[in-house]
Amino acid sequence: xxxxxxxxxxxxxxxxxxxxxxxxxxxxxxxxxxxxxxxxxxxxxxxxxxxxxxxxxxxxxxxxxxxxxxxxxxxxxxxxxxxxxxxxxxxxxxxxxxxxxxxxxxxxxxxxxxxxxxxxxxxxxxxxxxxxxxxxxxxxxxxxxxxxxxxxxxxxxxxxxxxxxxxxxxxxxxxxxxxxxxxxxxxxxxxxxxxxxxxxxxxxxxxxxxxxxxxxxxxxxxxxxxxxxxxxxxxxxxxxxxxxxxxxxxxxxxxxxxxxxxxxxxxxxxxxxxxxxxxxxxxxxxxxxxxxxxxxxxxxxxxxxxxxxxxxxxxxxxxxxxxxxxxxxxxxxxxxxxxxxxxxxxxxxxxxxxxxxxxxxx
Length: 362
Fold this sequence. Notes:
Elements: E1 2-8, E2 12-17, H1 22-28, E3 46-51, E4 54-56, H2 66-70, E5 73-75, E6 79-81, E7 85-88, E8 101-114, E9 117-123, E10 137-141, E11 147-151, E12 158-161, E13 169-178, H3 186-191, E14 198-205, E15 217-222, H4 226-238, H5 242-245, E16 249-255, H6 264-273, E17 277-283, E18 295-296, H7 299-306, E19 314-319, H8 321-334, E20 342-346, E21 359-360
Parallel strand pairs: 1-7, 11-21, 15-16, 15-19, 16-17, 17-18, 19-20
Antiparallel strand pairs: 1-2, 3-5, 3-7, 4-6, 8-9, 8-14, 9-13, 10-11, 10-14, 12-13
């Protein structure tokens, strides 16, 4: 037996087996709902159930509170269908999303940008296409079946010449990886990485990317949450869409110390070269040697200080769940931001997931 899921207001429909996962069925049908971690931890797939019966699986309270559940909201990534269902989601992804693929990649380079941040360049297969939207992420497929997820930090596959004559070139994607001491994957990257090592990846994944609008944009990042934000900035700068290229952008990047703003020079130089981009770095724990004269405190508070009314903006937020959750709450309650204009990708560790299983979000 199968049931029909209808998405309002788009009226798109797809089928899901009885007891089947709603998000997975939508992705399989090519009508994917917004999502991030796929593990009930980030809340990106949260939407309202208008009618029907679902069983909500295990999840984090911050992703779906008891109050939200009582008001009819569900997390499609961990909800199963037990009747025909009507859901309200204004962020249904386009049918023409890039295809998800599994493929090998080769390490091109690894460069430490901070004591605990590595910038990786991964060579893509020459014989396969790999299309993605700026802001999406990939999964590393580990030998024991576990996964580790990282956002792509460029807006499209980049090309690097392999000789001076430029007779051939290698395509690569860029990742920003923070070391988690004791972490299964990052300990290897920081201490045992081999030259030209081969990895297996799956992607692109996720529903974090720019939405059509003429509103000014707030880009909000903490730590390595800057990676997908960098990709979005590159997309705007290289776009052939003149309206997009002229949308004002305020980039707020928060970290503890100056060293943690591992691409500070890139952000500063890009803001100088691109008049539509304003860069506001914010440090929460600046060191004396930083001689910091800039903004301090919580990065999302800096946004509120500068923009007490966000009703005419779009916000794209990436980073630690505590920052993303606080920004969503405060922007909507204190600055009149519409919930439909807040797009987020929370960077989760294994400890953030509701269960310790094989899926470990970024």
